[in-house]
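Second attempt. The first submission of ATPase, P-type (Transporting), HAD superfamily, subfamily IC had a stray character pasted in from the spreadsheet, which I only caught after the job came back as garbage. Lesson logged: always re-copy from the clean sequence file. Corrected sequence (888 aa) follows.
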Amino acid sequence: MNPHRHDIEKLYAHLHSSAQGLSQAEAARRLARYGPNQLEKIGGQPLSIRLLKEFTHFFALILWLAAGLAFFAEWREPGQGMAMLGYAVVGVIVINGLFSFWQEYRAEKALAALRNLLPRHTTALRDGRAMQVPVAELVPGDVVVLAAGDDVPADCRLIEAFAVRVNTANLTGESKPKSRATTAPIEAEQVAMRRDILHAGTSLISGNAKAMVYATGMHTEFGNIARLTQVAQEPLSPLQKEIAHLSRLVALFATLLGVLFFFIGQSIGLSLWANLIFAIGIIVANVPEGLLPTVTLSLAMATQRMAKKNALVRHLTAVETLGSATVICSDKTGTLTQNRMSIRQVYFSGAQLFPDELDGAEPLYDIMRHCHDLRRVEHNGQQQWQGDPMEVALLQATPAGTTYPRVDEIPFDTERKRMSVICDTPQGRMLYCKGAPETVLPLCNEMMAEEGRLPLDDESRLRIMNEHELMTADGLRVIALAYRSVPQQSAHREAGMVFAGLVGLVDPARPGVAEAIATCAAAGIRVIMITGDHPHTASALARDIGLGLDPLAIIGERLCTMSDTDLQLLLDEPVLIFARTSADQKMRIVQALQRKGEIVAVTGDGVNDAPALKCADIGIAMGISGTDVAKEAADIILLDDHFATIVTAIEEGRAVYDNVRKFLTYILTSNIPEIVPYLAFVLFRIPLPLTIIQILAVDLGTDMLPALALGAEKPDSDVMRRPPRPRNEHLLSRGVLLRAYFFLGPLEAVAGMAAFFFVLHGGGWTFGRELGLHDPLYLQATTACLSAIIAMQVVNVFMCRHPVFSVFSRGRSFNRLIVYGIGFELLLLLLITYTPWGNALFGTAPLAGEVWLFMLPFGLGMWLLEELRKALIRQRIARNGTAGNTVR
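This time the job returned cleanly.
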């Protein structure tokens, strides 16, 4: 049954209970039947299976193949150093797999946060007596007793209610407290409109209540959200998809090339051992072993930079995903606004005034000072007012003054839509009233004016209501204030009042939000507001922050009646706001945007936001006002709860993608000079110019720090003036492939092979002569090839800083990490070349000074040719007028 739609007596009969609650024995029986009042974890894949997946994806399988071949070669021909190669490749697989698994495991803490949000104990009636009961032991049929400040422990139907107002922000996203002061059945289906129901996860701001529990644990609305959060599939990030695409492409190419040249070697009479070396060499040379560690470390460095900008990143790939976002679905309260009510306008003595323009408004201040249900509490060692944020704003706006004792109160309820208090003052007993203008104004027969108190005629009433409508149209929450002196024995205490004025309150926009919205527009990012608040309030804020002058506001009830097709069409509207939305509706909006091909970022702070945060491409939680549930479901946490921080993080995310492409170009460039020696070895029957362990010295040694330095480059000046990159744009684009494999790579291969033959011919080698693996001349020649490749990579790191701009144009943004990276690269090269352990480990030998001089012209030539290529591209951009979309 639907408890909110039926009489309380029917609920008693259905639950076999009464207003006196259950007996201890019956509660124990029901606990055994229904289970504890806590959230349960929905079964998923075992940890062992998830861990295994990190070591069996396609990229890892190719590396396992290379390691297996290395171990097989060591078994067939011991002492050739192939085991060391195998261990190195296995190390790369293990490190990347464990790191990825750890990141995924941390995300599973969301359920623990959901459990911890529920209160631990509550007051329930057992055997007719009120007693403290663990929340986990509540069962359907229990009667709980709640007071202001208490958390609601389960879904309950009200039996008795006195001035109850509930903070439902965690559940519905609505910032304003909701009245729950009726025990009569309610037909409304929306959670926010069920005024006879208290839901788990909400809390009482004011009043007292007695309520019957009808749903516990996973059967509550809170539990439904928990189920949505767990069932929601977390999509792969764009960067994860790109790395997977790149890995498959490169690994497949490497494997096919290795197999092809294995058979070529067989056909020209090479031994099985030589062919195995060749096949492994081709695979290892083509698979960029350093790519995944470099991407991981680069993203980790980006998270550190973002943390300094108040954006805490929980999942590394979220950095780049945010940079590719095309839509931001933002909540309102606390993100776009300051999450505190303040007085914007006051209608007093016949005029619209700002709060600082009030003069002689002591009657108004008396009402604001006395007519509230706030209480003083201590928080972090300071006294604060606790209760309705609207009442806090009214009280804090009053100047210091005398507070009179309260002798009676007529509480607020949804039927009256007003509240009154009676206080003893030096002028006698005074009644102070505040409430909705449409309920307060009819009870007034006088009004305050500059001339004093005047009769309230029809014309005056019409003028006041017109002012009310104007303030409401501006998105203000309007409260009417009135007062009167009260005789000792008065039957109609709220009749014959004096209208004091109207107060318009607003949760103001955060400073900098309008500028951030404008930056999003320039960057081609659409912002959609999704809130639990009233559509008028949301629309007014949208106009204030520049989101749109005439936004289309859609409420949750209308969304319920829409088909998926209608929703898809609706999302084409240029300026769109969703108001009064529930948790599942917010998630539905996000999924509809994703089906349209959008990369969606979602902000949220409440329990109701958790499912949308998890299923979005990028979930962003509020660090100050956000619940633990929202934080654990999100990828990024804003430490300052400010929308402008999102825009700063997007800039960083876009820079990350650009930087990944820079160091991808840098890493892939060295693949060609690593492949060419093996092709020459097979096709021309020369000594092998570069060994496999030397390839790993480049991929996992000398290239790593310079690549990381490229990953730390600052954003380009135009990065937020470009539209988001197309969803179908790949990291390994045609431009990157041509530049790395067919321009820079061949230039490095020429340098490496030239240095190899320079040493061979200098030592008297002739074509066709075989050299032993430990021949000093051979060791020097392979060292020369390795050194030339590394020297060319030193030049290449400067050229990869930007695909179009000259090396010299980047001088203003000096990157000290590049200097450190090159220093490390050269130091490692010297250790490999001139130390005994380096010689023994990598099969190298010291080089003469003339060999280094021989390499210099090749580096200079590559730099000049690359500068010429960039100049030609800049000329083409200037002709086409596409400077804002720099070639990537």
